[in-house]
Amino acid sequence: MIAFPLRARRSRLFAASLSALAFALGGQAVAQEVPPGSIQMDPDPRPPVRPVQTAPGQTPPSTTILKPDATPQETPADQAPAAPEPHVVVAEPDKAPEEPAAPPIPEVWAPVPTDADGASAYGLYLAGKLALMRGEGAVGADFLARANRLTPEQPRVREQAFTAALLTGDLDVAAALAPSDGSPAFVEAGRLVQTVQAFVHGDARAADAALNQPIGAPHARAGIMITPWIAAAAGDWTRALQPAPTTADPLTLAIARVSRASLLERRRDYAGAEAELKGLADAPTVGALFKRPYGEFLERRRRRPEAIALYQAGLTANPDDAGLKRALARAQAGERPPALPTFRAGAAQGLTTAAFQAANERGNEFAAVYLRLALNLEYDDTTQYTLAQMLSRAGLDSAARTALERIGPGDAAVYAAARAELASSYAQEGQDETALTELRRAAAALPDDPRIALMLAGQLVQLKDYEAALTLLNGPLLNTAQQPASARFLRGATYEAMNRIPEAEAELWAALQAAPNDANTLNYLGYLWVDKGLRVQQGADMIARAHALEPNNGHIEDSLGWAQYRQGQFDTAVTTLEQAVDKEPANAEINDHLGDAYWRVGRRREAGWLWNRVLTLDPDAERRAEVERKIAQGLDDGPASTGVSN
To answer: Which domains does the chain have, with CATH numbers?
Structure first.
């Protein structure tokens, strides 16, 4: 349905120009299978986001334990996924022990536990839960921590306070609340946090001593990643250079070998470091992942020609590897290679890698925790952006937005990605002017990026600034021979909103030729033809194709019902439009259409009720006037039309 400026249409047009981009600028390695950039912890924010990958038939482990108000489960998340290419075989995770039952919160406390302000433990608990449900993570964590102080005998309150503190980033509070018994998911997470926080606060020896008992499942992978760096910082080189346990999955073992090579290089054992890196780079299955770290080692050893040859070989096998491209360009220009990471940076890099692997298993909560810890060790805008993505995927939208707002302009690509993500978030809430402001900031950071220009044009159309939108859409960034179908689609929708129908048809038809199975374009052009009475049958057929592609899309179902209405199939239209209203009950246009269909089949009282309901759903001025006329006069006996062009 087509009135692009209508807020209800964002899911078909604004989302097509905004969310469908997924914002390609910023989606770096969080959804990749531990790319080379993540191993050296220089994750690239520029490649497109890819969906989280798991091997065919593999069920990703559950990680709901770290989600507020979730019942802890014991599915380990320390097993690496099988990467699509190269393939890594992963052992089946062991079944963890059942969680001991927590004692219930008593129905009656005598006396009622209250704090100095008179707040009761149960009131604080409920307030904390409500705040978390509303996305106010920091507030919820504070309430739950206060409830826990009043009821230390209640492990569930402690676990939920601990989880909330973790996910909102209050890591010192989380360390203080870490459970000492109960579910391994909580206990081992608590040990991980306490160990990292001791290191953060400068006590590497205490952190190293805590690792005398290795971090267990489901956080064993993160423990393996941080152990050598903490041990090295504490001067415990025996542990620092000890190979990772063979029980770890193959990919984690391989990445641990990269850390070991870095520490060997720091100890000036160059032969040992090279043996590790060369063995990885030459491996037939995972070697492509490790050519970059080996090449950087060669550069540091002043063996630049060998490094260049290695990078070129890597790009022959994987020509889209942005990290290798940058490494090759740097080496060919004779620039300085990356330095070895500090101990804190190495531990942060290890946690970031563990987060990538958890994200591949859809362990978004685990990934968010590891990234919080990594940022506490060493701040990095790209890691912050990745954290925002993980928080968003975990349903913590408020925390995700806060994370995005903290990203500064130091790296233009990451900054632009963050502003674009914020714009999408604000637009979904109807804060269109704020979304526009964020997109202008993104465009200022990357003025030559057509993806930002397309998003900005979409937001301008949302605000009915059609001329400004067309200036972008017809400008040199977007009006090119290689322009994507989404640019033509948005240009066509803009012309349609300006009632420049022939131009709209031409652009939408061109978009459809470029993407013939795009449900948005099929629906949009089909509806335009049906509603304008131009090519009703062809338009109806296109809408039917769109509905077959997206049968659960209420907007497309509305288009289908409206096509049936315009063809005089009123009884069928009623059924279809009722289903559309069920999917989109607060949509003014769809309710209006169903009211018209009810009138045509003689259900006039119901038609009047629906038209009155439309007036409560924030219709635009044109629709409001037309609906008020229908309430007063009903529909005439002429052609089946509301008189409102959508």
So the answer is: 517-646 (1.25.40.10)
